[in-house]
Automatic annotation (TrEMBL):
<dbReference type="InterPro" id="IPR051196">
    <property type="entry name" value="RSAD2/Viperin_antiviral"/>
</dbReference>
<protein>
    <submittedName>
        <fullName>Radical s-adenosyl methionine domain-containing protein 2</fullName>
    </submittedName>
</protein>
<keyword id="KW-0411">Iron-sulfur</keyword>
<keyword id="KW-0408">Iron</keyword>
<keyword id="KW-0479">Metal-binding</keyword>
<dbReference type="GO" id="GO:0051539">
    <property type="term" value="F:4 iron, 4 sulfur cluster binding"/>
</dbReference>
<keyword id="KW-0004">4Fe-4S</keyword>
Length: 144
């Protein structure tokens, strides 16, 4: 796989450990039964060790993911997928973002620790090839 990733030459390759969320992907009654994608901690570590030398490689284990993402559902409610069943906030359209965020658990420390704040403008983050549709990516357009 390393050779294929090197050939693709992405500036960032994010790999996630499979996270089981109770009431969403934990059994055959759900549309997405993720149990078949589970790996042991030893298998996950072996995979990470095998690929960590790639400069584009970024891994996220279950501990890093749980409660470190801000997810919105189709009703614009924050979803808390930490422990147990998924819980949701009131819609940000009704109560605003600050109030809705008070209704969930979001681990800002884990958010920062998983390396989400980085400089997209760095030379090694800029694409060196044209995109498949024949356009070049303008990083300034992605800034907010």
């Amino acid at each position: 796989m390393v050779a294929n990733i090197e050939k693709l030459a992405p500036f960032r390759w994010k790999v996630f450990q499979c996270l089981i969320v109770a009431g969403e992907n934990d059994n055959e009654t759900w549309k997405r039964d993720a149990r078949k994608f589970l790996v042991t901690e030893e298998q996950w570590k072996t995979f990470c060790d095998r690929h960590k030398a790639l400069p584009c490689y970024v891994s996220e284990d279950n501990d890093s993911m749980a409660r470190s993402y801000l997810l919105l559902d189709e009703y614009m409610r924050f979803m808390d997928k930490g422990e147990g069943m998924v819980t949701t906030s009131d819609s940000i359209l009704d109560v605003g973002v600050p109030k809705a965020m008070e209704q969930i658990v979001w681990d800002k420390k884990s958010f920062v620790e998983r390396g989400v704040i980085y400089d997209w403008g760095r030379a090694d983050m800029k694409p060196t090839k044209e995109l498949s549709c024949g356009i070049r990516l303008n990083m300034e357009e992605l800034e907010f």
